[in-house]
Write a structure and sequence with these properties.
This protein has about 475 residues and is α/β, with parallel strands linked by helices. The protein has 12 helices and 22 strands. It has 2 domains: about 5-100 and about 270-475, 3-Layer(aba) Sandwich (Aminopeptidase); about 105-255, Aminopeptidase i, Domain 2 (Roll), CATH 2.30.250. The strands form 5 sheets. A 9-stranded mixed sheet has the order 1-2-3-13-4-14-20-16-18, with helices on both faces. The protein has a 6-stranded antiparallel sheet with strand order 8-7-10-5-6-9, covered by helices on one side. Helix 8 (about 320-330) crosses helix 9 (about 335-345) and helix 10 (about 395-405) packs across helix 12 (about 460-475).
């Protein structure tokens, strides 16, 4: 059952739509490299599309009716968007769920140190990465620092023209004989992923040093002049003291914009496409939805890469509580109607799949693998080896999804995540399945997944948007 390459059937109109969608997507992943940035942009776009916050609706006592558009966010890292349909919410919702966190390096709480005239920031990697891929790249710092007085300072260094960038160093091959004997997992150790941030000492006169208050950059300069210089720059430019790292969330990500890839411009190369390619296409489908029979929901969630844990992960009560609040404003309050609504819902767990890579063909079983250009990917199950940790969609739901894709004229394919017994993976599907709703994994095929620069096909991005639109309309 080999699937046809979607590019072969595109009209000039399709190709124009593909490029327009890809341009917006490239902007999104270039400008939104953290879960906070993705959530903020989603809310901005939602408000432009007529959504109001749940807090606003509740405060005003707004009665929600068919067509109403409401959103709720959790700690600036997770957002739920809901458009009410004609039917009662109790009859079930059509839910698109994607995650907006991506593998990266996080700055530790006590990170800044000086070593041999270099200033460095200590990091702790987040999610599954190949550590050796993160050395010798231009890197940027994104995030927030919250001071004791409650003021939040937004940090974005390394993206604007003229900004400095950062890097993690590696050993030159001339001296790397011992290093090259290590396996790939240990050739760069986790504690060696320290960010190089400076090498210039703070010069302080002897008299100024004597007058300096303990703990100030001028006082520190006597023993650690390069670290002192970094502290002074942070104070002067951002009003940040060293202790403010304790209440900071700073993420190290690849610097620079996503780009068109290939001589034919058929692909997108950029950071964070797992899972922002599904987040963006799900968001666009939700925002552009017309009148709907069933209520449409788009969930963009944090913490998937580390198990969907925490207050902003899918396993929190935030999603359930949000739906309960919306049902109350729609005149459907009560625990039993909520339980029925969740159980009667249909969901696409919108997450990426591993694309067949001819450079590593042995990792895949070709008959059950996702290929570039063949459309939206459905994974009936994920998990590892004996389907461990998987949500395995039932046959009836898979049949329903097939009908929806055909009704929407969507190019789609089915796949597993690599060869049996080789590895595996998971998504947020199992979390929503606990309510008894129908859930299946769907998304875009990705090359070099979890690397600093992932690759996707513009055709697959286009078909994902079409597929998510069809799902909200017909499921």
């Amino acid at each position: 059952m080999e699937r046809k390459n979607a590019w072969k059937d595109y009209s000039a109109k399709d190709e124009k739509a593909i490029e327009a969608l890809a341009a917006g997507y490239i902007d999104f992943i270039s400008e939104c490299k953290t879960e906070r940035e993705c959530t903020a942009r989603a809310i901005e776009l939602a408000r432009e599309a007529g959504y109001i916050s749940l807090d606003e609706a509740r405060a005003a006592g707004t009665q929600l009716k068919a067509g109403a558009r409401v959103y709720a966010e959790s700690f600036g890292k997770t957002v739920v968007l809901v458009q009410l349909g004609k039917r009662p919410i109790e009859d079930g919702m059509n839910i698109l769920g994607a995650h907006v966190d991506s593998p990266r390096l996080d700055i530790k709480q006590n990170p800044l140190y000086e070593s041999n005239d270099f200033a460095l920031l200590d990091t702790h990697y987040y999610g599954g990465i190949k550590k050796y891929q993160w050395v010798t790249l231009p890197l940027a710092l994104h995030g927030v620092v919250v001071r004791k007085d409650g003021k939040t300072i937004t940090v974005n260094i390394g993206e604007a023209e003229g900004d400095p960038v950062f890097c993690i160093t590696d050993l030159l091959p001339h001296l790397g004989a011992e290093q090259m004997k290590k396996d790939a997992a240990t050739v760069i150790e986790g504690e060696a992923l320290d960010l190089l941030v400076g090498s210039r000492p703070l010069v302080v006169s002897e008299s100024a040093a004597k007058k300096a208050k303990e703990g100030t950059p001028e006082a520190i300069a006597a023993k650690e002049p390069v670290r002192a210089q970094i502290l002074k720059l942070l104070q002067d430019k951002y009003g940040i003291e060293e202790e403010d790292f304790l209440s900071a969330e700073l993420e190290v990500v690849p610097a620079g914009r996503a780009r068109n890839c290939g001589l034919d411009n058929s692909m997108v190369l950029g950071y964070g496409q797992d899972d922002r390619v599904c987040a963006y296409t799900s968001l666009m489908a939700q925002l552009e939805a017309g009148k709907l029979d069933r209520t449409a929901v788009c969930v963009l969630v944090d913490k998937e890469e580390i198990g969907s844990v925490g207050a902003t992960g899918m396993t929190s009560m935030f999603f359930e509580n949000t739906i309960a609040e919306i049902m109350a404003l729609a005149g459907e309050a009560g625990d039993l109607p909520l339980r029925r609504a969740l159980a009667n819902s249909h969901m696409l767990s919108s997450d990426v799949s591993a694309a067949f890579d001819p450079q590593f063909a042995s990792a895949f079983e070709a008959k059950n693998t996702a290929f570039f250009g063949r459309g939206l990917v459905f994974n009936k199950f994920t998990g590892s080896r004996g389907k461990s940790g998987s949500n395995d969609a039932n046959a009836e739901y898979v049949a329903k999804i097939r009908g929806i894709m055909e009704a929407g004229k969507v190019a789609y394919q089915t796949a597993e995540l690599g060869r049996v017994d080789l590895g595996g993976g998971g998504t947020i599907a199992y979390v929503l399945a606990k309510y008894g709703m129908n859930v299946i994994d769907s998304g875009v095929a990705v090359l070099s997944m979890h690397s600093p620069c992932e690759v996707t096909s513009k055709a697959d991005i286009y078909e994902a948007k079409k597929g998510y639109t069809a799902f909200l309309k017909f499921a």
